[in-house]
Amino acid sequence: MATPIPAPAQDSSPRVFEASGPWTADFGEDYCRLVLSLRSDADETTLAFERIQPGPAMRVLIIGDSIRSFRGADTIGYHFASSRDQRPTEKSSDFSSSRTPDDRRLTIVSFISIEPAPEITQVFQRRTNAGDEPTFALGSPAGEAGQSPGYDPEVERERAAAIDHLVFDRGLQRAV
């Protein structure tokens, strides 16, 4: 007769990381990256937000061995918490993991945004073909100054100013 093996206990309280240094900004030729070193007890982690074009989408890089995903997870859930907003918007994103040259875990969260989820999923652009007859093609036209449609940097600044913390809460062995 087979005896079930109990699953290991998982600490359900989120692990809290505090800043252990100042933010560092890296303005590359075709990107902008904000980097912050974090610490929880003896564990060190580096968090980087990277934007490669104007718009609400950012990529997040997490370097450190203390943040681990479940083996079968294909997304990581997250939300930004604000003292002004009682109900944070739950979101999720694809991610990938690998190792850095110095053998630390590198987790890349593909898409993260402080904006609400976009309502536009497809945009049709009007184009003129060789016969000068208008045709419509699927595309994603840029707004002013190369911005995504519906993206407002001033609204993003207001939302960002109210953020108290970022929580990764799904797809991980322990929320952080």
What does this structure look like?
With 176 residues, this protein is mainly beta. It has a domain at 18-118 and 163-170. The protein has one helix and eleven strands; from the N terminus they run ββββββββββαβ. The strands form two sheets. Strands 1, 2, 3, 4, 5, 6, 7, 8 and 11 form a nine-stranded antiparallel beta sheet that branches. A two-stranded antiparallel ribbon has the order 9-10. A hairpin with an 8-residue loop joins β6 and β7 (91-99).
Reading the helices and strands in chain order gives EEEEEEEEEEHE
- Flag low-confidence runs: 1-10, 119-129, 134-145
Helix content: under 10%
Strand proportion, as a percent range, falls in 35-45%
Number of helices: 1
Q: Give the biggest beta sheet.
A: 9 strands, antiparallel
Instruction: Estimate the mean pLDDT confidence.
Output: 74
Descriptors:
mainly beta, two-stranded antiparallel sheet, 9-stranded antiparallel sheet, disordered N terminus, 176 residues
Task: Describe the SSE topology.
Blueprint: E1 18-19, E2 24-27, E3 32-40, E4 43-51, E5 58-63, E6 75-82, E7 91-99, E8 105-112, E9 123-128, E10 134-139, H1 153-162, E11 163-170
Antiparallel strand pairs: 1-3, 2-3, 3-4, 4-5, 5-8, 6-7, 6-11, 7-8, 9-10
What's a concise summary of this model?
The chain is mainly beta and about 180 residues long. It is built from one helix and eleven strands; from the N terminus they run ββββββββββαβ. The N terminus is likely disordered.
